[in-house]
Predict the structure.
Amino acid sequence: MGNVEVMRRGDVQLTSAGTGIRHSEKTHGNSPVHFLQIWSLPSTHGLTPRYYHRHFTDEQKRRGWVPVVGVIGGEDVTDAREGEGPTPVHTALWLYATLLAPGKSLEHKLGMSKGYIHVIQTSGYNTGSSKGNKIKVNGGLELSEGDGAFVTPTGEGAETIKVENIGEGEAEVLLFDLE
């Protein structure tokens, strides 16, 4: 497809492989790189390969849940290669990101049938047990950097997920709202 990008903090790059692509990646310079690579199966097969790029600032994420990936055709989701709003995906999922200050909490009402929460590791490379920032989910489950957990509705009001930062630093959290 001829795409060459230098990714920076807050960038989302989405490649819809569709009928097939060739892909490679490498670091730019000598500094270590920390990023997440997330794969999902498309709802529709045989799509024409597409490439998307979006950027979301830390300031946006400090204001609450920011939809960084959304179902193509969904609210505020455009099919533009570069654009504003959620990055389009051909999968039944929405991905939200936030930067949550110590002692603060956020809620999210699931729009689909389940959720997955992931605390991004921001404290540096770590081969041991989780360390760094911590969150509490729905007043019980505690997750540290690098941890994740599925959340499924279990009864009245359970479709709302509450995330509270119980650590000493700003926690970077992803919330997948999916089928």
Remarks:
- Residues 11-178 form a domain with the Jelly Rolls fold (CATH 2.60.120.10).
- Residues 36 and 76 are 24 Å apart (CA to CA).
- The chain has one domain: 11-178.
